[in-house]
User: Fold this.
Amino acid sequence: MKERNKPLLIAAGVVLLAAIIVAVVMLFVGEKPPVQNPPAAAGTTASDSAAPEETIPRMTFLEDPTDETAPTFEVVELEIPTVEAQEASLKLEAEDADFTGLLAPESMRRGYSGTGYLAGFACNPGDHVLGLMEIPASQHYDITISVCSDSPVTNALLLNGEEVGEFTLEGTGEFIRVTFSGIYLEAGEAELSIREIDGHFALDYFELTDFDEMYAMEYDDDYKLSDPKASPGAKLLMEFLSDHYGKKVITGQYASSSLNTETDLIYSVTGKYPAIRFSAMQGLTENTTVPRYDGIDACIDWAHHGGIVGLMWYWDAPTGVSSVYAKETDFSLKTAMTKEDIALLSQEEIDKMYEAGGMTDACYAVLRDIDAVSETLRPLAEQDIPVLWRPLHEAGGGWFWWGSGGAEAYRWLWQLMYTRMTEYHGLHNLIWVWNGQNPYFMVEGTTFDIASMDIYLGADKDYSSRYEQYVAMSRMTAGEKLLALSECSSVPDMNDMFRDNCIWSFFGLWYGNYLMDENGAYSDTFTSEEDMVAFYNSEAAVTRSDVRAFYESRMQDPEE
Assistant:
């Protein structure tokens, strides 16, 4: 994990979970027109406010300034290899592989296959094992290794000299199978080897089998929102996301401030604006020590130009030491939990319960903060600007206080926030993105719309499609939710996503050196300028102009 002054490094070599989310947006120009379906006032409940009318919002967009210096590029066509899946099962005993140094065959342990296993891995300079396998067809495979250790160690599997992923052994002394799923291999010879990080393990065999789960991955075109009173704007955005899911990838970029420094830079390089402008809110609550977030007007302006708004919340601890990080604050979410039904209480009822001793300081502060952030978001709801709303992110990692208290406390907080923001505050323009990043932190499917994953890799790593995380997230959500890359260190590989049939709904590239250098110029460190141009001009990329065109066409003919 990388401490966030921002980018929080979420490692992604281990299969674990995921989720999806995306967005589109609608806005008005000039004087604010009458709100067709105003959100319920604070203090009302679901039964107090009527469901939104099934109408298409009428909106007028601001004109983008003409920029004759903006570059133009030809459309980049997808290059997807033809996959004709066939059954395959190959196995190479480690003792039959090529090896050097102090590595040597042994047969003292139990549970091995073949005539023995390869031992002696101890990070010796001359040690190397190389397994050559003849790949029968160009398709996706599972690569499995059988390994054992007597103590906890971490090492890595390499394919043709490139790292597939790390594997960690608990040190049981028994051989276990470690599988890396869904790896695309071209027909022909492949080289499997090990990069020792800790060493101190034994290798029994390499195994390769066909993998077809991703070929069966399906994409719905009619995902429904969890909020039964979702606003017309939110419904229209979800329609847009559903229409494009599995067919195209929606582009997104995080803004470091209320300015459009990052999105303008992308435009100057690619000739296109990202479809989604993400930003992180902080400094909105009583216990905060950081400057107040001032980006709501920028979100509204982005929507007025046809873009999609995405927001996340760095929630400073409600009481005690102010920080989002669990190790820096003494706030415990468990002390806020209550079995009482408090989500729809008015402020007067909350005060009364608190003064009577029926609510802890922590619980009172949690409610106060949810109300504060709800009021910050209200201007967006008043114009029915839909928001990809991602609160309580990366909980499964445990580094933020909202995840460090465990899954039960996290689920309690998610349910409280969802109910209070939708039913009490009437924010029906929110499209909820779950980003727990751990199956144990999964919340009720009726309280979120998109599941997402944050994946950061080193600048020297090929980002590819991140198929392992995609498949894991699809399993977690039973294929019933959109899946998205809510944060990433570089743009994913467009061709690989379609080749692997792991097509994230959208992505959000973080700011800072993931995009620009210290002088504000484009940086090739994580994504080369050539790759960025190719992605944004791909026939499968959705940019801001595409979002705007969708809205304009739907307003002209609601039946389309």
Observations:
- The two ends are 46 Å apart (CA to CA).
- Residues 1-52 have pLDDT under 50 and may be disordered.
